[in-house]
TrEMBL record, chain A:
One of its GO terms (biological process) is transmembrane transport. It comes from Microcella frigidaquae. PANTHER family: INNER MEMBRANE ABC TRANSPORTER PERMEASE PROTEIN YCJP (PTHR32243:SF18), MALTOSE TRANSPORT SYSTEM PERMEASE-RELATED (PTHR32243). The keyword Cell membrane applies. Its main location: membrane. This is ABC-type glycerol-3-phosphate transport system permease component. Belongs to the binding-protein-dependent transport system permease family. The keyword Disulfide bond does not apply.
């Protein structure tokens, strides 16, 4: 008995392996590099060696955890504002067609602007308002891309909530806003959770705005990582350790929200 | 408890008129059914009364108070939607108690009241379940429970039974009527199902194209429909409608029908309506109509007839089927006093003869 092998499924499996390795191999290499000595780093192929934690000690000493804490704070504030404003905006667009059909996708229009266009107005405003030593300018800059994405992401979730729920709550004695808060919002909580994690990742990963708008001495994580590229050369080992610290939370978060993430992105894209 | 009144109520979307200067009175404590084909404005009228649609013109009064500008929450109405609109994240008990959250009542009191209501609707054992774990009929009861807990001034029902299967629909129909009678709360009930309207209503409002076609007790409307539309909309099987002329005690249509109508005076052009129950058949080999199809309904049967190009229906007792089979020729006559005549131009009912 011969087993027939579908050439397409073989091709698909191959493609998936290539994609998976493309993503994981560099991460693996970074993880290895973070426990190598400077001499071992010169041999990228070296896999069997005695690991040491010098690089990790070095990044902790350089305050990487504090930078990560600041990044987390910036991301958390950005996401908190975005979720509150975004859920209300998304419901308005979904249920009341606020702004007409154009808003549904037009809301993402700002995404095509290169950050370089926005960063100097932000910087000028930050100086004028004496906010340049705070994280407020970074948070506002992050809101410029996190808020629209979260709003767009949530529209599809709100589309799935029957209008009659809000109407029922209004007849049952509640104001429009109370109906939204007590009845509509609870139906989309999973979507809001996914949107929050997604938005957190976007903010967490941003380097450009942080580099220019965050206080220079107490900067945020991506900028702190870049700081290991010193005038004496790149401290590859230390940088690798810092990168692992930055990447791991994102990987864990993505794992938990992957299903909702697909739902949000396709729901927002397919429904008109 | 309250009387509800529509004074020249109007609803327009752009240039489309959905509800056209409608006047309706819903007497205190009555169950009034708004019935009509889809697009007749019945649901829009109900939603305007609930406050979910703005009113383009005219006034709606509840208990003498104009409610046009009021939010739904300030109108003291309760509503049951077609899809029940149960809150998916709340248990049965919390769903029923939900309207009390908007009032000042304490949570413990609200839940106790909700438990009483649930018990009275036979939901006592299900109170901790979520709506998705209930059958359609149970969901329907929860929606009713949520509507009655607050003792509103007016009940609004928007096709509440159309998602139930036929058997359950009939049972729930009577249950709803009993609840409404017991509480004595004015109820406005929207449906497209004329049978539901006939059986449930104290008063029936037949609507068509944004206007009221006829208002009255169901038996009045059935007995004296004021237009061809109402005549064919109300009653099942549908009333036979034929155009023709009456002379010498017989109605003759150019399309070939011939009916004996002893009591009617001569007329050149007329629309004749006769309910299937009132169309009498006599087997006669020389008859002008022929039995085309027989649908047996148990004790009675619907007989479809070919009369020239006209198709007529008659309802007969099943024991007569021995003399009536497909192909039998018959003479047609109208039961005395059961003739409906309409003006051929306006399609309005002609004055009684």
């Amino acid at each position: 008995m011969t087993r027939t092998v579908n050439p397409w499924s073989v091709a698909r499996a191959l493609l998936l392996w290539v994609a998976a390795l493309t993503v994981t191999l560099p991460l693996l290499w970074v993880a290895l590099a973070s426990v190598k000595s400077p001499a071992q780093l010169n041999d990228p192929g070296l896999v069997l060696f005695v690991p040491n934690l010098d690089n990790w000690a070095r990044v902790f000493e350089a305050g990487i955890l504090e930078a990560a804490g600041r990044s987390a704070m910036v991301a958390a504030v950005t996401v908190a504002i975005s979720v509150v404003a975004g859920s209300m905006g998304a419901y308005a667009i979904s249920a009341y067609k606020a702004g007409g059909a154009a808003t549904r996708f037009g809301i993402l229009a700002a995404q095509v602007l290169p950050p370089a266009v926005l960063v100097f107005p932000f910087l000028t405003m930050a100086y004028a308002l004496r906010l340049d030593s705070t994280y407020i300018p970074v948070i506002f800059a992050h809101l410029s891309f996190v808020l629209p994405v979260i709003t767009w992401f949530l529209i599809g979730f709100f589309d799935a909530v029957p209008r009659s729920l809000e109407e029922q709550a209004r007849v049952d004695g509640f104001s429009r806003f109370a109906a939204f808060r007590l009845v509509v919002l609870p139906q989309v909580l999973p979507g809001i959770g996914a949107a929050a994690i997604f938005g957190f990742t976007l903010s967490w990963n941003d380097m450009f705005y942080g580099l220019i708008l965050a206080p220079t001495q107490e900067t945020i994580l991506p900028v702190a990582i870049a700081a290991f590229n010193t005038f004496r050369g790149v401290e590859l080992g230390a940088m690798s350790a810092a990168i692992i610290i930055a990447v791991v939370p994102v990987v864990i978060a993505s794992f938990f929200i992957q299903r909702r993430l697909v739902q949000g992105i396709s729901g927002g894209a397919v429904k008109f | 408890m309250a009387e509800v009144r529509f004074n020249k109520v109007r609803k327009e979307y752009g240039s489309t008129v959905i509800v056209d200067d409608v006047d309706i009175v819903f007497p205190d404590g009555s169950l009034t059914v708004l019935v009509g084909p889809s697009g007749c404005g019945k649901s829009t009228s109900l939603r305007m009364l609930a406050g979910l649609e703005e009113i383009s013109g005219g006034e709606i009064l509840i208990d003498g108070r104009v409610v046009n500008g009021l939010e739904p929450k300030d109108r003291d109405v309760a509503m049951v939607f077609q899809n029940y609109a149960l809150y998916p994240h709340l248990s049965v008990l919390e769903n029923i108690a939900f309207p009390l959250r908007a009032t000042k009542s304490r949570r413990a009191d609200a839940l106790r009241r909700a438990q009483e209501v649930a018990d009275s609707l036979g939901l006592g054992a299900l109170t901790s379940r979520k709506p998705k774990d209930l059958s359609g009929g149970q969901q329907q009861r929860v929606a009713i429970g949520r509507a009655i807990i607050r003792q509103p001034a007016v009940f609004l029902f928007d096709e509440p039974l159309s998602n139930l299967d036929a058997k359950l629909r009939v049972e729930t129909r009577f249950e709803l009527m009993q609840i409404q009678r017991r509480l004595g709360i004015t109820a406005v009930y929207v449906t497209h199902d004329q049978e539901e309207a006939m059986t449930m209503s104290d008063r029936m409002v037949v609507m068509r194209e944004g206007r009221v076609a006829q208002t009255g007790r169901p038996d009045e409307i059935y007995a004296r429909p004021n237009s061809v539309f109402v005549a064919t909309f109300v009653g099942s099987p549908k009333m036979n409608i034929v155009r023709g002329a009456i002379s010498d005690g017989a109605f003759i249509s150019p399309t070939g029908s011939r009916l004996a109508v002893a009591q009617a005076p001569a007329r050149d052009a007329v629309v004749l309506g006769v309910r299937p129950d009132d169309l009498l058949l006599t087997a006669n080999s020389g008859g002008t109509a022929r039995v085309a199809l027989i649908e047996l309904l148990g004790p009675r049967a619907i007989v479809h007839l070919d009369a020239g190009e006209d198709r007529l229906t008659s309802v007969v007792e099943a024991d007569r089927l021995s003399e009536l089979t497909v192909g039998t020729s018959v003479d047609l006559a109208v039961r005395p006093g059961a003739l409906h005549l309409f003006d051929p131009q306006t399609e309005h009912r002609l004055p009684e003869v």
